Amino acid sequence: MAISTVAATAIKSALAIGGLHTLTFIPIMLAAMAYFNYELLDPEQRPFNQKYLRETYDFIVVGGGSAGSVLANRLSEVEGWNVLLLEAGGHETDISDVPLLSLYLHKSKLDWKYRTQPQDTACQAMIDKRCSWTKGKVLGGSSVLNTMLYIRGNKRDFDQWESFGNPGWGYEDVLPYFKKSEDQRNPYLAKDTKYHQTGGYLTVQDSPYNTPIGAALLQAGEEMGYDFIDVNGAQQTGYAWYQFTIRRGTRCSTAKAFLRPVRLRQNLHIALFSHVTKVLIDKDTKRAYGVEFLRDGTQQVVYAKREVILAAGAIASPQLLMLSGVGPEQHLKEVGIDVIHDSPGVGRNLQDHIAVGGIIFRIDYPVSLVMNRLVNINSALRYAITEDGPLTSSIGLEVVAFINTKYANATDDWPDIEFMMTSCSTPSDGGTQVKKAHGLTDEFYNEVFQEVNNKDVFGIFPMMLRPKSRGFIKLRSTNPLDYPIMVHNYLTHPDDVGVLREGVKAAVAVGETTAMKRFGSRFHAKPVPNCKHLPPYTDEYWDCFIRQYTMTIYHVSCTAKMGPSSDPMAVVDPRLKVYGIEGLRVIDASIMPTITNGNINAPVIMIAEKGADMIKEDWLPKSKKRRRRSIRCSRLEKISLGRHNSKLCSIKR
Ligand SMILES: Cc1cc2nc3c(=O)[nH]c(=O)nc-3n(C[C@H](O)[C@H](O)[C@H](O)COP(=O)(O)OP(=O)(O)OC[C@H]3O[C@@H](n4cnc5c(N)ncnc54)[C@H](O)[C@@H]3O)c2cc1C
């Protein structure tokens, strides 16, 4: 590709996601990337968008996100199977690759731009009191918009899933599936082979760039009596550097990890800009036999010989089930959908992680990530040439801590708060992108943050790990293009208020440690609108505070939960098959019975790895299954993998 074409493509992608006016430094970066012919050096080319589709496939995967990309790869390993992946969005872009810029993707064309119903319990500082549920509409799904944090959750999460009546989902059962995907690039962690592996498709590495604030936060943890640990290893309670799904300084989405290496497989078709509107289910046999979808403005149909797999995420998967006649009978009747199977749990049990925004600390040294200080040709060149520097920082996320509030049993090692600790915060971009991404009102932002715009700060976002409040999703209408009604119900359970309040107090205490005081750390204690009438630092004040700048961490899940047949609210069985319907599974964040103790992308990838194996177990004769496990790459795959990934071909995957 000529340099000019590379530059033109990059400029086009910048325009596509937000308009260059918001990304003023992008032209410099694009010029650098074009000059160094970045794309030509990149061995990982994008997959093809298949124009002409077959009439019938063995498997149809709906949604090419975190789970769908894994499924498409693993199922098409079986040479005799034809697999179709239908994705509503298009390709990821050069901008979505840049870790520092992920907030620019919110409210862009790569985002579905969902918003919840207004409620009084949370998100009071947001426009219309509605929380923004950003979600990826792009090949790679939310793994293209996320902040790339790699957290597996707690052993107890999975043992609890098993105890609910889901055999095969205990921690010892799922650990091999976390490892299966993993290419651990930290040599110290990689040595611990009980928990880690190298050579998998998904690159997991430390951040290429940290500020001095990160190291100080780790010292603060030590000062407060916490261990410095591998949070994905034997113990979860403690402090650690975050690890990321980053490869060579850029985002390693699931599209990049799982689809690019297999783009030349003849038995895998990927159809972009294909919005699935319905699963076709035979009313008499109750068997799923295909899907309807919109592409290029026309309605099309494609048939599945074996199975349809919904991997459209925790909002669209239950929506599609309901549009197809599987859901709570009474609700479907009210909306005017023919009921094929009454499944009261579809869309219910919604869980999410919320944190509190605005816990920020001023410091006296110019060491934090202030956007207008970083936006310069040096950092652009560093990113483009050496694949490190500030642009490789995932919006300043450096250190993670899992801590116990008084509501948790500390001896359990099942902490109830995660600190997401950042070397910047909401005002570090002068009130532009963070404010927009979080949907904050002008009044709130100006009153609380304007005076610290572009000043040196660090932030701690305390995130509540095991919410007891439950939201739900239901259909707005029979129109598949109408977004469903989304009700978060955040902080409607009193225990959640207590845990989050204690998390806020613990976060404020971190700023008081000697380690942070060395930087002149002081809490930005500006009283927030709506809570000014309450005395600061009291429980009443904090209880009010957490309902203002309530931040979703974008972990919507559990809306088509897995459970035993004795549980009327279970939507799928422990093999992820939809109850009451043949030939239909859900494999994505929806199937979690309870949300895991940490960020959920790694668990979703694990679910897809395990789900793909279950499908193989169900459909392949035993001898063939054994052969697949030691598969080596075909000639075409080797070409597609290129030199960079060639070791993937020689290991057991
Ligand atoms: C902004 C943001 C930040 C996050 N940060 C982190 C993080 O740092 N670490 C972490 O662990 N987790 C993070 N998460 C959460 C994590 O990325 C998601 O939970 C995970 O990606 C969900 O995977 P999924 O496969 O269930 O859904 P998705 O990845 O969302 O995939 C669903 C796919 O289905 C497609 N689709 C939907 N409807 C249709 C339809 N009708 N027809 C065809 N295709 C359809 C979508 O376009 C999408 O590609 C974040 C999420 C977001 C949004």
UniProtKB/TrEMBL annotation:
Residues 136-159, 313-327 form the Glucose-methanol-choline oxidoreductase N-terminal domain. It comes from the Eukaryota. One of its GO terms (molecular function) is flavin adenine dinucleotide binding. FAD binds at V138, V276. Keywords: FAD, Flavoprotein. Its cofactor is FAD. Belongs to the GMC oxidoreductase family. This is Glucose-methanol-choline oxidoreductase N-terminal domain-containing protein.
